[in-house]
Structure formats: C-alpha cells, structure tokens
Amino acid sequence: MSLATVRARAQNGLVADEVVVEVHLGNGLPALNIVGLPEAAVREAKDRVRAALTVSGFSFPQQRITINLAPADLPKFGGRFDLPIALGILLAQQALPAGCLDDLEVLGELSLSGEIRPVPGALPAALQATESGRGLILPAANLAEARLCRAAALYPMHHLSALVAALHQGTLTRADTPAPVPASQMDAADLADVRGQHQAKRALEIAAAGGHSLRLIGPPGAGKSMLAARLPGLLPPLTEAEALSVASIRSISHEGFDARLWGQRPYRAPHHTASGVALVGGGAQPRPGEITLAHHGVLFLDELPEFPRAVLDVLREPLESGVIDISRAARKVRFPAQFQLVAAMNPCPCGHLGDPRGQCRCMPDQVSRYQGRLSGPLLDRIDLHITVPRVDETALLDAAPRDAERTSVVQQRTTAARDRQLARQGKSNAAMSTREIDQHVPLDTACRALLQRAVEQLGLTARGLHRVIKVGRSIADLAGDRQVTATHIAEALRYRAP
Ligand SMILES: Nc1ncnc2c1ncn2[C@@H]1O[C@H](COP(=O)(O)OP(=O)(O)OP(=O)(O)O)[C@@H](O)[C@H]1O
Ligand SMILES: [Mg+2]
C-alpha cells in the first residue's frame, strides 16, 4: 500500500483540532507536494523532512509524494507537522510496522539532523488527544508541560531515528513522570509590609474576595504599585482546571511554558508604551496578549492615563465578557481574558493634588485634561475606586506593627468568601450576569432606598448600579452574611466615587 495516515493536531488559539496527515506515494517524476491550506512554515516542512530522513539514514522515496493535511479548511501553522509527515512517508513505504501508530497522535518539528524539536501548544494538544482517547508522541522538551494533563499517555522522544527504532522493536515507552502539584503563590511580597493604607487594604481584600476590578489613585510613592503587587497573593488558590487553562495560555504564548509558574495566579504589568497587539493579542498566527496572559490573575496598568486611549477602549469588551475575539483576515480566534484589572494613577500631572501640604502646582485645566484621558465607559467598568494618601513618615520609620495582617491570613478570608460564591452561584460575584444578580442578591427596602438615592445623587449608571450590588455581595460574603444589607451597600457605594 502506498497510502498512509498519521494523526496530528493543529493549533488555533487554544484549540488543538485533529488533523489527519495523509501521505500518498504515486508514479511520476519525484516531487513532494503539501496540500490542505498550509502556511509558509508548513510548506517548508518538505525540506526539513527530506533532510531529517536522509541524514537519519532512511531512504527518501523517488516518487511523486502528495501530502494532504485534512480538514483542508483549517489553517495550519509551524513545524508541528514535520514529524507526522516524516512518519507518514516511512509508513507509506512500509518502512514502519503497519498499524504501529493506530492509537497514537504525533507532534513535533524536525531539525535537519532528525532531532525532534519542541513546538508551542503541546499542553492543549495533549489535553485534546487524551479526550479523544489516544496517546501522544511528542518532543521530549515538551514533556514538562504536557504531563500537567494527568490522564495523558505521553511518549516523549528526542530523535527521529530513536523513535523509528522504538516503533520497530515495539519498545515505545510511556512517560511515567507524575504531574507536579500546583505550588502555592510563591510571591515573597506580603501585605504586612505595607504600612497604614487601611482603606486600600480593605478594598484589596474585597477585590480579591469577589474578583472585582480596582483603581488606586494617589501621589507618587504612596504605595500603589506595592499594593497592586500583593493582590495575586490574596486571591483564592487556582483550581486545577483554572491552573491548566493558565498553563495552556502560556504554552501557546511568545513567552512559552514555564514550569515554575504552574499553579500561580498570573500577574501581568505591561508598560504603557506596549502596543495594542501586545496588550490584547494578535498577529498573523494570533497569539495571546497581556490580557489573556492575565487570565485568572491580575492585569496591573500602572500610570493608567498614560496608556493610549484607543488601547484602553479595547479593554472595555473583555472587561464585561471575559473573552477577546481577534479577527485577522478571514480568521477568528477567541481567547479567554478573565483578568482582574488593577489600575494605578496620580490624581494630577504632578501627582500632589489634594495633598494636605498643598504641594500641587497643576493648573485646573491641566488636571481636567489629565483625568479626561480616561473614558467614562472604562471608569464605569471599575468596581472599586480608592484614594491612597501619602503615608506619614513616622508610620514608615516606626518599627513594623506586630498586628499587621499577613497575606496568608487575609487569603483565608477571601477564600472562604469565594467558596460561598461558588456554592451559591458557581462563579465569582464579579462574573455574575444581571439575571444572576436578581436571583442571588435579593435587596430589602433599605438597600433599594440607598441605591435609589445613589442613582440620583451620584448619577450612577445601570452598569454602575449592578457593580455596586456585586461589591455589596462580596462585602457580605466576607462577613459571612447570607443577606446583603444596607450597611454592605453603603460601604460598596463609598468605593464608587473617590
Ligand atoms: N504604605 C507603605 N508602607 C511601606 N512602604 C511604603 C509605603 N508606601 C510606599 N512605600 C515605600 O515606597 C516605595 C515606593 O512605593 P510605590 O512604588 O508602591 O509607590 P507608588 O504609589 O506606586 O508611586 P508612583 O506613583 O511613583 O508609581 C516602596 O517600594 C516602599 O519602599
Ligand atoms: Mg507606582
């Protein structure tokens, strides 16, 4: 038989669709053609495969070779099809035992010398191969990430010739390295290091409990960046499913998978000069941007007004929906982007507006221009707005107070509050839809009266109103109260207008 098939996986965003590599050896002038919507890097596979096969001592058929990557309408990128194509050519020549790849899928790029090189997206491929009930032959360098999929049958290989020998001798061996246990947040930064700032700490705790977005406004050196960096440690630990999706995102990103980050809440702090694509994702082969790399974690935007308005406006959609759709010439990729936004800014260009010592030298129109860089709709999507005043020098110079609460203590409270949310509505308070708010947060007359007044006096929008109710729910959850009361709502309203 001169027709062979090998199963592989494409990579489209986080989706690793099954691809069948069909190899046909026919009569005619020696040639090799790849059909089935391959991009440039896949078309180059023929040169790599030819070199890898001949250098490894296998014969390259002097026939007309047609390689079809099916389904044809699925775009295919990168060198991930090299190894399946090489094995397909060997199978079609009967240079491999028939049926030796029947319950397996194959993933890997080849070097000219036949070395099997790592590819991006090995974890999503392993997860989806396992779901289809098949094992996966993969580059040895990808084992660390692929084994996070506990149920996967993985066959890590370094070299084409070793792989072919193992298939001949039936000695292909399944990796038995167990998946590592997710580490707790390794962040050394502790909440106890922050002096004073009780209101900001309280807001951080509420934000961590309910998954709310937060804006910190204060003069230079007040501790805004310090506070923001402590939020990941306050968040409840990731579930294994969440940790897997965070690791999968890393796996397809420019930065690649990093085993040390397994189980850690992401903390991303892109600079305001970062491009729109770096922030939201994109490219010819769409890769995740900062907002997706911050999925299930924290996106810290320091100096918020310095970010280009157009870039900030793209954040509006994912802040509500938790996903970002990227369209590139007939292709659409959807990435998750359920990040928790923490923004920091000075109150004015010089940073000292409202300082009791009256240091601010800004003109009123400078201040309004600075603050006007932020669009109303963006600010409306931020649940908690906190003023972070300058800390007193004496508080900074005194010995650290012994009763300062440590991150681990606060995290126990936020985790308990989050558990209540998951038991009640299956998601965080911040992620509740309007319908879920009606269902899970019944309001008494006192709460209604309070909110009514806030709509009239603060000009609260419908969205703002819903966000206040969600924050009130989180405050009640922290207190362990089943019912949201006017006290909770009143506190939530205080964080609405700084
Ligand atoms: N509340 C605080 N407790 C302890 N140290 C603090 C506090 N606030 C500031 N500091 C010290 O000052 C440094 C600067 O703080 P931080 O970078 O968080 O300020 P910031 O508000 O982000 O300022 P900027 O507006 O300039 O970015 C910290 O690294 C820390 O050493
Ligand atoms: Mg700062």
Overview of the structural elements:
By secondary structure, the chain is an alpha/beta fold. It folds into three domains: 3-169, Ribosomal Protein S5, domain 2 (2-Layer Sandwich), CATH 3.30.230.10; 191-411, Rossmann fold; 432-498, Helicase, Ruva Protein, domain 3. Helix content is 39%, strand content 16%. The protein has 22 helices and 18 strands. The chain has helices at residues 40-43, 45-55, 82-92, 122-131, 143-146, 160-169, 198-210, 224-229, 231-234, 240-252, 276-280, 290-293, 309-314, 316-321, 364-372, 376-380, 393-397, 407-425, 434-440, 445-458, 462-479, 486-494, and strands at residues 3-9, 18-26, 31-35, 64-70, 104-106, 109-110, 116-117, 135-139, 154-157, 214-217, 267-268, 281-282, 287-288, 298-301, 323-328, 331-336, 340-345, 384-387. The strands form six sheets. Strands 11-14-17-10-18 form a five-stranded parallel sheet. A four-stranded mixed sheet has the order 1-2-4-3. Helix 18 (407-425) crosses helix 21. The radius of gyration is 27 Å and the shape is elongated. Residues 224-225, 302, 344 line the site of magnesium ion.
